Write a sequence for this structure.
């Protein structure tokens, strides 16, 4: 998988999820745990529940946007990719938990097995678990399968906090291994407290530093389709470097107040913030209607995509709307002139290209080494081979990729096949949705 | 396999199994209700040869049993019960009723090891507390399924021909139950 085992965040979560398993193992001899079919099913069912709960809890942390996550996951966008994966994994383990436990009752009769799955008035802990899982199922079906409006989806997704709370009660009250071993019990309670903290932090307190800005200007870059929004600070201005992104929330009755992520397109020296919006849906279509002077709440900056960490010779490959962080970086280059960049901008057709004149001009002024607009409707899909030809070789160059995930994945594979070392390939996946 | 696909498959399996079990449970439960208490047979999955038919005629069938076909009667005394104290032949007394738990040992959710010490003896206390420092009783479904293993009351005299075939875990029904 792209996010791999390479980042400390994933390693940490794996370790924390492994701990309850070892604590559980130490509670009884292994032979007893798997002696016979009934005991084996009990064991598998229990472990599935324990690990699933830990993953669920830690996953709540991944959605808090706490700055430290950027260090652990090499960028907030990667934290969100892990969040999607972990969410699915926790869900699968928690679905397996009651089913596996139920199967052990089947030899005693299907009536007993059916009763096990149903809520019961004299087993409160089990009933809480059932409701928690049902709620989780409804909310995750909405998340994975139904196409609802973003703000509706977001409101429903927050109720996973309630599902988690019910699950916590289930773990707390259930009469099982988790109630019989101090070590296991307190570990689980601790991990769940972390999850509860995450819920309060994000959903209830909406914590995290916000910067106050107001709209200075909205420029139409492509008629009715692409706009650049400029914001000026109302108080402190946010320090950032080009290539990073922010979450923006407008306080206006012309647009929903939900917050959305955008890459910053002004250089870091600029006093104003700029970002580019493409008209793609309910929210983005309203951007053009916002009046000058509208207040905006900004959180950020996020992202670890930073050309300044790398060598002097670089290759930048942008796909579609993935060009936005590069625009910021290019504008910053014009104030520095210490990089030789071969910039390839791939679009499906020329009409879609943003800031094309500005970028071509930069190449002429030798701010950028080269600038190429690559139109896939005329020239086919961009590939590592084509990049190699246009930029005259890869040797010793750092390659930065930003665009749709399938493009990034394909290019990464091709580049590695052509001998580019993995530590020279850097990507920013836009997968926050 | 991406997370979405794996989740979809798991969800599907979850609901398939849940629906199957709940439906089967409902059907069998309705059946049981309408047939009254004397009917003990259920569609049980037992790893034994003597597939207990749902008509309770297994009480008569001696097919394949290693029964020492004593047509005589047996008193379910403490001494008699004590003879069946092995993993391959396990009887137990619970609340003055005698049960043949041989078939249950390997599928016992608490493991065979927890039941074995009580084979041939009175396991009432163990059943009531699960031998835990914080005593826990067995579930409703466990209690309900006891009847499937019932041999007779303590010190009752029973016909022995269908009961002395414990290896196959017979669950014969008794006419005079």
């Amino acid at each position: 998988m792209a996010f791999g085992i390479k980042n400390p965040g994933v390693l940490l979560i794996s370790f924390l999820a492994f701990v309850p398993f070892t604590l559980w193992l130490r509670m009884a001899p292994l032979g007893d745990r798997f002696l016979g079919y009934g005991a084996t099913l009990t064991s598998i069912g229990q472990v599935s529940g324990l690990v699933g709960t830990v993953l669920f809890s830690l996953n709540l942390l991944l959605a808090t946007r706490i700055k430290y996550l950027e260090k652990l996951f090499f960028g907030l966008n990667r934290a969100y990719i892990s969040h999607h994966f972990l969410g699915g994994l926790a869900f699968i383990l928690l679905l397996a938990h009651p089913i596996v436990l139920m199967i052990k009752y089947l030899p005693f009769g299907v009536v007993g097995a059916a009763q096990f799955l149903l809520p019961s008035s004299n087993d409160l802990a089990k009933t809480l678990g059932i409701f928690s899982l049902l709620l989780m199922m409804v909310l995750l079906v909405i998340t994975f399968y139904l196409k609802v409006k973003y703000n509706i989806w977001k409101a429903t997704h927050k109720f996973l906090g309630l599902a988690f709370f019910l699950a916590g009660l289930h773990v707390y009250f259930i009469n099982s291994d988790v109630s019989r071993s101090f070590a296991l019990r307190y570990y689980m309670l601790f991990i769940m407290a972390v999850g509860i903290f995450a819920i309060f932090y994000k959903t209830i307190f909406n914590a995290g530093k916000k910067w106050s800005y107001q709209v200075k200007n909205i420029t139409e870059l492509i008629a009715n389709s692409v706009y650049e929004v400029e914001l000026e600070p109302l108080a402190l201005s946010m320090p950032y470097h080009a290539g990073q992104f922010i979450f923006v929330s407008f306080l206006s009755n012309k647009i929903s107040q939900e917050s959305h992520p955008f890459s910053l397109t002004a250089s870091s020296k600029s006093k104003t913030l700029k970002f580019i919006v493409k008209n793609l849906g309910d929210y983005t279509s309203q951007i053009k209607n916002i009046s000058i002077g509208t207040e905006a709440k900004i959180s950020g900056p996020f992202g670890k995509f930073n050309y300044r960490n790398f060598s002097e010779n670089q290759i930048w490959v942008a796909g579609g709307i993935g060009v936005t962080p590069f625009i910021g970086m290019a504008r910053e280059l014009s104030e520095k002139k210490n990089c030789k960049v071969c910039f390839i901008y791939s679009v499906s057709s020329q009409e879609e290209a943003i800031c094309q004149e500005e970028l071509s001009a930069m190449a002429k002024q030798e701010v950028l080494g080269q600038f190429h607009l690559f139109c896939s409707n005329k020239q086919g899909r961009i590939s590592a081979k084509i990049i190699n030809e246009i930029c005259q070789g890869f040797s010793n160059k750092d390659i930065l990729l930003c665009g749709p995930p399938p493009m990034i994945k394909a290019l990464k594979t091709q580049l590695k096949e052509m001998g580019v070392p993995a530590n020279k390939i850097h990507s920013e996946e836009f997968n926050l949705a | 396999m991406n997370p979405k696909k794996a989740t979809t498959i798991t969800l599907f399996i979850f609901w398939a199994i849940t629906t199957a079990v709940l439906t089967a449970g409902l059907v069998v439960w309705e059946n049981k209700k309408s047939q009254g208490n004397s009917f003990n047979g259920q569609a049980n999955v037992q790893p034994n040869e003597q597939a207990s038919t749902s008509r309770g005629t297994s009480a008569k069938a001696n097919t394949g049993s290693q029964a020492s076909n004593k047509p005589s009667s047996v008193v379910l005394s403490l001494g008699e019960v004590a003879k069946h104290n092995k993993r391959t032949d396990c009887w137990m007394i619970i609340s003055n009723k005698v049960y043949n738990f041989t078939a249950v040992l390997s599928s016992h959710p608490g493991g065979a090891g927890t039941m074995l010490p009580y084979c041939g003896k009175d396991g009432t206390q163990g059943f009531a507390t699960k031998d835990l420092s914080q005593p826990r009783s067995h579930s409703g479904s466990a209690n309900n399924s006891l009847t499937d293993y019932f041999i007779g009351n303590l010190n009752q005299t029973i016909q022995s021909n269908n009961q002395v075939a414990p290896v196959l875990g017979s669950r014969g029904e008794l006419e005079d139950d």
About this structure: The radius of gyration of chain B is 19 Å. Chain B touches chain A through 43 residues (CB under 8 Å). The beta strands of chain B are 73-75, 85-86, 89-94, 97-100, 150-153, 157-159. DSSP finds five helices and six strands in chain B.
